[in-house]
Amino acid sequence: MTSSVSPRRDARRNHERLLVEAKQLFAERGIDAPLDELAARAGVGAGTVYRHFPNRDALVREIYDAAVADLHDFAPQFLGAETGWQAIELWLELVSGWLVAAPYLPAVMRRVAELDPNHRPGTEFAPMMDAVVDRAKAERALRADVTAVDLSVMVDMLGSLGQYGGAYQPFWRRQLTVMLDGLRARPDVTPLPGDGQAFDEFHDMSHAKGPKPAPR
Question: How far is residue 173 from each of residues 148, 155, 169, 183, measured CA to CA in Å?
Answer without folding.
Answer: 20, 12, 8, 15
